[in-house]
Every structure is written in structure tokens, then in C-alpha cells.
Structure prediction request, 351 residues.
Amino acid sequence: MQGENKIITITVNSVRLTVVVVVTSAFAACGGNQSALNAAGIQSERLDYLWWLFFIICAVVYLIVIAVLIAAFVRTKKVNADAEPDLTPQPEREKRLSNIVKGAVAITVILLFVLMVVSFRTGRAINSLSQRPAPVSIKVTGHQWWWEIEYRNDDPSKNVLTANEIHIPVGQLIKLELQSNDVIHSFWLPNLHGKRDLIPNYPTAFYFEADKPGTYWGQCAEFCGYQHAKMRFRVTAESPEDFEAWITAQQQSSVQPSNDLQKRGEQIFLTTVCAQCHTIQGTPAGGKVGPNLTHIASRPYIAAGSLQNTRDHLAAWVTDAQSIKPGTKMPMNTYSQEDLSALIEYIESLK
Ligand code: CUA
Prediction:
């Protein structure tokens, strides 16, 4: 009876595990866009291939092991039914069993070796892009809990500073220089490249290329504190012309207020706490603690991908960021309704 229960438990657990593996893989394969199995560049294609190779080999091994395990239980039950166990030596049978074990060990070693070599070759192929000069270089700094993005120009007045929003030209080599000033973060853009840790005081870099235009979500992949889960970024891969247009627009100083409400909003921004932490190029606001807001209205999301950039979300974020992202450095702010409207009107004008 006990043996039967064991078989049932093992079978149920195996079936459960199989279902989990199949459902997870199916979701990853055809589910959300933010997936390493939805490759948009040559490097992620290699990772995609590696993932499927590992998955298929491991799945086949898993099914064989489970089949053998179930067969062993079924056979044991039959033997146990005999009253007197047969204890006479059977050298031929033992030799056969030992050969089976040796064969299984050999196959396991060969498979592990194959997986290791393929994995090693993939790593080399992914890093091979660094041999060429990159026309676009982007500096990414991880902060608790947002991403500072900088496009440097030979002319420093044309440097672009933005947050959580990366634009890249399709088909061109991109160099990403990564660094962190607080804790360890991990830059993960699954559609285009594997993870890369940002370790304080150890700047690092990697190269990648997008083959397909599109918008790809990325994520911090290393637990970095309370709001680690709300540390996302967006990468827009677009034609080189669109990319140039975007860069040129971002290089401009902020739009000047065009009506009285916006002017009042600008005054509030410059004379209350906002300017202590945020920069708006073309105004005296030069704070470096929070994201650069020179072109905040051009970004579709705020708070590192947590909220869509709408008037209501901006107002909620300005007044009570702590209830949206507890622990963030953005303080709670109290404004009269009129002042808040003016401030949001101004922020929304910063295209
Ligand atoms: Cu940054 Cu997790």
C-alpha cells in the first residue's frame, strides 16, 4: 500500500512539475513582448537559441528519467509480490545493469560538456561586437530607483540627459557604459541583450545592436532595495533619421513658458523644493538628485516606468510620491489647487 502511495505522489509531483515547465515556457515563448525569447537583435537571437537548446535537451532528459523512475516502481511492486525473494547471484544481469549505469553516466557527461561548449561559444559570440567602433555611446547610471541616461557629445553643451528612456538607431552598434553610485543594480533588456550588473566603483560596458524597430521594456534585475520592482526603463529602436530627430530635440534647452499659468508654474518650480533636486536646462534649476526634467513631457512614463505620463499621474506624483513608490527620494509636497495646476501645466509644457 505504501509503495503504491509513493508511486502516486511521485507521479502527481512529476505531472505538476511538467505542467509548470510547459506553461512557463509557453508563456515565455508566445507571451509578453518583454522576453528573451522574443529576440530583436543578433545577440538576443543567440541567447534565444541557447535557451531552446537547453530547454529541449533538459526536457528530454527529464522525461526519460521520470519514465525510468515510474517503470522501476512498477517493476519493484511485481517483485515484492513474491513471498520468497530470489537471492541467487545473477552475474549476467548485474553486468548488464552496471553497463546501463556506465552508459547513462557517459551520456550525462557528454551532454553537460556539449551544453558547456555551446554556452561558452554563445558568450564569445555575444561579446564579439565590441571589436568594432560604436557610433552611438550611452552612459547609464543606476540610482535607487531610476536610470539616468546620458548621450555625450564632443560639444558638452549638446550632451543629452534624460531618465528611464533610451532611444537607439536600428542596425547600428550601440555602446552602453554602465555605472552605479549607490547599490548594485542590474541592467536587463531581455529582447536585446543579457543582464549586466552595475557594481558601485566598477564601471562596465557592453555592446549591442537592434535589428527590429520597436519599443522594448527593460528592468533592474538585481534586488536593490524597497522599490527594486519599480525600476524599469524603455528602449525605443527607431530609424537613424528618427533617432537623429529625437537627439536634436533633446539637445535643445527647455521650452519657455507660453502663457501666464505656465509662467506661474515655472516660478513655483524654481522657488519651491523642485529645483533643489531637478535640472531644467535653460532655467536656474540645476538639482542633480532626481531625473533631469528638461524634456519630461516628451517621456511617455514617469517614476521609472511606474506611471503613464498623464496630468493626473503627474499631480499624484508631485503631491504624494510616497504612496506610489514608498521610500523614493521624491518628498511629499503640499500645494494649493491653483499652484498645483500651474505647476503641472508648466511640467506638461516641457516637450
Ligand atoms: Cu535597481 Cu533593482
In short: The radius of gyration is 29 Å.
